[in-house]
């Protein structure tokens, strides 16, 4: 909510998150890029149509009435549910309503690349920014680190709030090693 408040006051130019849980949106952030996508959206791998996770769940429920939550199944040690093979064999997988294509969570999985349009958009936002603030990231994943490195190459101030080392420490940013909540509540933005 702090970052959404900064945005509302015009003190945050753009928020880029590597989180995939939609928490920034739920907190009220609007100037936001979810670099690695979001688990609340489903994308067609063919035509790129987006669908909400809730809508897909409704379609799965309608197509697979035998999969109601009131059934009792054994739970595996990893928390997965062990389903009988015959039940799994009958499961119907929804397809894209636009083209019939295969659906997947709208996420960048390990080994995937960030969409080039999103990457270029974020580079533009870094270029427009006065400084870069990294909050709670080790920046070990290059998809996030590249933007901090670009800011450093442009001689933009970089500040990091994180417990532990980050990939950007070698860039000699202003670094605060503390709990994010402890630091953010002490920053007054007017």
Write the layout of secondary structure elements.
Elements: H1 2-8, E1 15-17, H2 23-27, E2 32-34, E3 37-44, E4 50-52, H3 53-63, E5 74-75, E6 81-82, H4 85-89, E7 103-107, H5 116-128, E8 132-135, H6 142-153, E9 158-161, E10 174-176, H7 180-184
Parallel strand pairs: 1-2, 8-9, 9-10
Antiparallel strand pairs: 3-4, 3-7, 5-6
Helix pairs in contact: 5-6
Question: What do these coordinates show?
Answer:
- With 190 residues, this protein is an alpha/beta fold.
- The protein is built from seven helices and ten strands.
- The protein has helices at residues 2-8, 23-27, 53-63, 85-89, 116-128, 142-153, 180-184; strands at residues 15-17, 32-34, 37-44, 50-52, 74-75, 81-82, 103-107, 132-135, 158-161, 174-176.
- The protein has a three-stranded antiparallel β-sheet.
- α5 (116-128) packs parallel to α6.
- The chain is elongated and about 60 Å long.
- The model has no long low-confidence stretch (mean pLDDT 93).
Distance between the termini: 15 Å
Low-confidence stretches: none
Beta strand count: 10
Q: What Rg, in angstroms, do the CA atoms define?
A: 21 Å
Number of helices: 7
Overall pLDDT confidence: 93
Indicate the overall shape. elongated
* Adjacency order of strands in the biggest sheet: 4-3-7
Percent helix range: 25-40%
Order of H and E elements: HEHEEEHEEHEHEHEEH
**Approximately what portion of the residues adopt beta-strand conformation?**
15-25%
Largest sheet: 3 strands, antiparallel
Q: What structural category characterises the helix and strand content?
A: alpha/beta
